[in-house]
Amino acid sequence: MPRLSSFREMNLVQNLASKFSEFGTVDVLGEVDHKSYSLPIHSFQLGSAEKDKPVVGLFAGVHGIERIGTHVVVNFLSTLAEQLSWDEHLQQLFSEVTLVAIPLINPVGMLLGKRSNGNDVDLMRNAPVRSLGKTTPLVSGHRISPKLPWYQGPKLNSMELEIELVSNFIRETIFGRPFALTMDIHSGFGMQDRLWYPYGKTKTPFPDVGVARKFNRLLNTSIPHHVYKLEPQSAAYTINGDLWDFLYDEHRAEHTENTYVPWTLELGSWNWLRKNPKQMFSFAGFFNPILPHRYSRQMRRHRNLLELFLRAARNYKSWS
Ligand SMILES: [Zn+2]
Q: Which residues neighbour ligand 1 (ion) by CB within 5 Å?
């Protein structure tokens, strides 16, 4: 069994938690037990606590093998916290917008170096949502056996603890806000970085597709030559149990007057493999950049996008 002291990402999150409380709020949403381990899920909140202000949410580590997303979120939060101590412009921004985050949603999976959680459930197939379209065997989610990847869990309404905790956190911090953008960072699919908007369950456009398209225009004009391909998640594949479909639909049903668009940033790791084929000899190499300069590039590469999320949310009335 791996040693907790060498769990790099948990150490990063805990270091962030110890310095972050000076600038914002840190909570432990719960602990996930697995064998002799009990691993916390940390949440972070920065900026205005007023419910009438817009909000941005950052999430990562849903799939334990996709470590790079956790690094991107921790890195961004930690530099924001540092800058808030001297940057009045940023302090002003955060009086008008809230940032919430869970950088490591599946700590057991990340400790063990696998995609699923400790119960072998794929947390991005576990929400109580059924695909309405044509699905791909196994990849779209299945209930055949926890021994096979993309296992959804034993039955439709059996939500794993990690997903319950994230859902409750979103209901508390995102629902009820006039405007919300969230980003859940993954890696391991395709040559290009993709920004996916709902739905994952169907190719039918989701009700806020107009806002997603307006954001696309905002991105094109604010960050020309950006690297992202914007498309609905279902353009890649249709899935069962997508957490963001589930939360989007629940929010839409309960808060008709508010807007919430959950995005997924899927980092195109095949490019790292192409440039460094040796990565193929390690399972983690399929999902994470191994060489130091490529890791640094990932830390830099998404800052503009994350900052645009904050400014876009803050100024949502003028573009959405
Ligand atoms: Zn993933």
A: 63, 66, 186
What is the span of the domain harbouring residue 217? Answer: 4-268+296-318
Quick one: which of 206, 208, 182, 207 has its CA closest to 195? 182
The SS3 of residue 88 is helix
Expressed in angstroms and rounded, the spacing between residue 314 Cα and the centre of ligand 1 is: 28
Contacts of 9 (CB under 8 A, 6+ apart): 61, 67, 70, 71, 74, 104, 107, 110
| Residue recorded with tokens 């191994």 | 290
For the sheet with 193-197, list strands across it: 25-34, 37-47, 98-102, 55-60, 179-187, 259-267, 193-197, 228-232
Q: For the purposes of burial, counting CB atoms within 10 Å of the CB of 193, is it exposed (0-12), middle (13-18) or buried (19 or more)?
A: buried
Residue 9 in domain? yes
- Angstrom distance (rounded) from CA 180 to CA 280: 38
Compute φ and ψ for 154, nearest 5 degrees: -65, -40
Q: Report how far ligand 1's centroid is from the alpha carbon of 61 (Å).
A: 8
Retrieve residue 98's tokens: 């809230």
Distance 187 CA to ligand 1 centre (A): 6
The span from the CA of 172 to the CA of 179, in Å, is 14
* Segment 56-73, tens digit of pLDDT: 999 999 999 999 999 999
Q: Are 267 and 295 in contact (CB under 8 A)?
A: no
Is residue 242 classed exposed, middle or buried when 0-12, 13-18 and 19+ CB atoms within 10 A define those classes? buried
Residue 28 included in any domain: yes
Instruction: Measure 151 CA to ligand 1 centroid, in angstroms.
Output: 13
Q: pLDDT tens digits for 244-296?
A: 999 999 999 999 999 999 999 999 877 767 777 777 667 777 788 878 888 88
Residue 253 lies in a domain: yes
